[in-house]
Amino acid sequence: MAQYSRVSGTVGLITLLNPPVNALSAAVRQGIVDTMDKALSDRKVKSVVICGHNGKFCGGADIREFSSPLTGPPLIPLIQGVESAAKPVVAAIEGVALGGGLELALGCHYRIAHSKARLGLPEVHLGLLPGAGGSQRLPRLIGVPAALDLITTGRHVTGAEALQLGLVDKVTDRNTVDEAVKFALSVADQPPNSRRVSTFPCPRHPDLDALFEGAMQRVRQRARGALAPVACVQAVRAAATLPYAQGMERERELMATLFTSGQARAQQYHFFAQRAVGRWSMPSGARWDTTKPGAVHKAMVIGLGTMGRGISVALVQAGVSVVAMETNEKQLMEAKQAISSMLERGAKRRGVAPALDKIGYSSNMEPAADVDLVIEAVFEDMALKKKVFQQLSALCKPGTFLCSNTSGLDIDQLASETRHPELVVGMHFFAPAHVMKLLEVVYGSRSSPQAVATAMELGKQMGKVSVAVGNCRGFVGNRMLKPYLEQAFFLLEEGTTPEFVDQVLEEFGFAMGVFRMSDLSGLDVGWRVRKADGLLNASEGHSARIRQGCRYSPLGDLLCEQGRFGQKTGRGWYQYDKPGGRVAKPDPWLHGFLEKFRTQHGLVARRIDHQEVLERCLYALMNEGFRILEDGIAAGPEDIDVIYVLGYSWPPHRGGPMFYAGMVGLQKVLERLEHYHQEHPDIPSLKPCNLLRNLVVNGSPPVHKWREFLKKPQSQL
Ligand code: CAA
Ligand code: NAI
């Protein structure tokens, strides 16, 4: 709803009231219409201020209402009504003005913002475009290039940047509503005719065609099949080339297409899923809202390789004091330099001073005695990690939380090396750790709720989306990656090429196909894990393509034996112009190697089509997701989907693997898995799991109902 009062004698003050972000629900929209009527019909009122309750202007349309038919006054005529008002209307922007909220402000005649307010049109992240006139008004106000940037990226700008762009008329560090009221008094006698943004001509640009071609190319490259960014460019083009009324018509058509697309549903699901994972629970019944996290003022990071450096930076940027520790002197020196320059770059981007004084370095464990939390990031080697945890347990003060960044080793085994296993949890970051938004928080069988709460809260403080998961090999993300990678290898054996598999996966929307990704992260990583698992040698009398009773592809191992570790060695599934090179080129050697391999093993290459690549890779991955749910390792499908979108570049416009399974149809996924499992009975990961069958038997309920079919979460090894 919206509240109305008259202040300073002649200013009508309208306050949007819908906590927590004053989203434009049907009731709020009705409230705006009613209170505007009041203000305009009150003869004592000379000007109007619109603000939001509790220091937040407006978080945009109420996304929860998108899934049901529209009720209440529609936004477009409402904003038109504000703009055409005969009395000056001033928007008092504090907190946020996003999406429909900013569009409402664009309909006002003046905009006063707090310097720290965040303004933006983030609809593109919800699979939409600014469809309440935003795509037509913004370019008229700030010019086409700046509008294209804001609308296609959905990025927020601060009040200060908004002033530079010409998006707001004035910025203040004081009480924004008071300033807006003062401003409204000062313009009370000025008719707002010349202030209606929809009547502005769109600023001319010397080469519109080149500008839009460039923008379209950029979004297509970034969007990876997403419709919304492309529609955003088309809508801005309409603003630049058509009169306002026709531009609005084009905006309406484009919005209608997006609104009913599966992509918008998927992205809105992702928006709510990211928030739902914060409401975690544990098998014991401990929950996010009943567990108090411990305070973390000072932390220690052990092992300053790829991960430890990024983790240290993320901690410092979150305001935590850090002792960064590394045994290898050369590595320590290099890490020091790398961390300082990452902190400097980050601070420059954010316009603040680098907090170099928040980090100290050590080549021994001693400082562990004085910290609240430790994150271990040494090599992925259980014996080494156990030793580190033993040392920490002896050194740390009582109550220090001990965390491991392991990619998949058993948290319970690490905990059992310590005197206080309840203080041990996994904090699985993703590379680069100061950039990637995902954190898997892994609770072992003895982890205390407080330890989990502390890791979850620390993740949030670092700007991450933290997902609590149970303890099993590979946790959620890497466990699901295994059958996906396996299928890709098997497909190569059966006749296809890395280029074709990658092309199919990239067309689906992944930033990188599985082989390019493997080249980037290094083939040797998986090789070492397989070695530790005793998988590298075939048992006597068995085919080289069977290990531990199941089908196995030795292709990755054979490449590693040749020193082909991927980008870092200049050769992997592709070739690169030099070690460390980034441009992947098809490698004739690899094709010859695959042919030889097939001949050696009596395999006849067959034609494998797009559908088979996609289904075998993705359905095997989804099937493992269902198993994870069945085992109670993830609490719900949202947890898996958030992990995949934020950690594994699953395209957001496809919601995540579990959401996507629902979009494809669970019945179809089940049938195709049955089909492939019949063709390949020696691949257990293709055997449809019971939960999937059960969901199909129960009529394939929508993804938000799956939890009704799940057991309570638990740790399982
Ligand atoms: N509609 C409905 N609910 C919303 C919402 C919205 N626009 N924005 C936030 N919420 C809800 C969240 O779901 C969350 O609910 P729960 O507590 O139940 O989980 C609650 O408000 C608080 O949100 P956050 O946890 O995200 O709080 P925050 O302080 O970290 O961030 C925010 C606040 C920056 C506004 C962030 O919530 C956000 O980015 N919201 C979405 C903004 C947006 O995309 N607006 C455009 C909507 S589409 C539109 O406007 C199109 C149109 O005109 C046609
Ligand atoms: P890395 O090889 O780059 O760095 C490991 C560092 O630990 C080295 O600098 C080494 O000198 C140091 N080290 C070894 N023993 C030590 C000890 N006893 N005390 C202090 N330092 C010691 O390894 P990376 O890639 O950073 O991985 C670290 C951990 O993070 C591993 O468990 C890995 O599985 C996990 N991880 C790695 C990811 C990646 O993409 N690289 C992603 C997520 C997790």
TrEMBL record:
Keywords: Fatty acid metabolism, Isomerase, Lipid metabolism, Lyase, Multifunctional enzyme, NAD, Oxidoreductase, Peroxisome. Residues 474-576, 613-710 form the 3-hydroxyacyl-CoA dehydrogenase C-terminal domain. In the N-terminal section; belongs to the enoyl-CoA hydratase/isomerase family. It comes from the Eukaryota. One of its GO terms (molecular function) is (3S)-3-hydroxyacyl-CoA dehydrogenase (NAD+) activity. Its main location: other. Residues 299-471 form the 3-hydroxyacyl-CoA dehydrogenase NAD binding domain. One of its GO terms (biological process) is fatty acid beta-oxidation. This is Peroxisomal bifunctional enzyme. CDD domains: crotonase-like. Monomer. Its EC number is 1.1.1.35, 4.2.1.17, 5.3.3.8. It comes from Oryzias latipes. Pathway: Lipid metabolism; fatty acid beta-oxidation. It is found in: Peroxisome. One of its GO terms (cellular component) is peroxisome. InterPro entries: 3-OHacyl-CoA_DH_CS, 3-OHacyl-CoA_DH_NAD-bd, 3HC_DH_C, 6-PGluconate_DH-like_C_sf, ClpP/crotonase-like_dom_sf, Enoyl-CoA_hyd/isom_CS, Enoyl-CoA_hydra/iso, NAD(P)-bd_dom_sf. Gene3D superfamilies: 1.10.1040.50, 2-enoyl-CoA Hydratase, Chain A, domain 1 (3.90.226.10), NAD(P)-binding Rossmann-like Domain (3.40.50.720). It catalyses: (3E)-hexenoyl-CoA = (2E)-hexenoyl-CoA; (3S)-hydroxydecanoyl-CoA = (2E)-decenoyl-CoA + H2O; (3S)-hydroxydecanoyl-CoA + NAD(+) = 3-oxodecanoyl-CoA + NADH + H(+); (3S)-hydroxyhexadecanoyl-CoA + NAD(+) = 3-oxohexadecanoyl-CoA + NADH + H(+). PROSITE patterns: 3HCDH (PS00067), ENOYL_COA_HYDRATASE (PS00166).
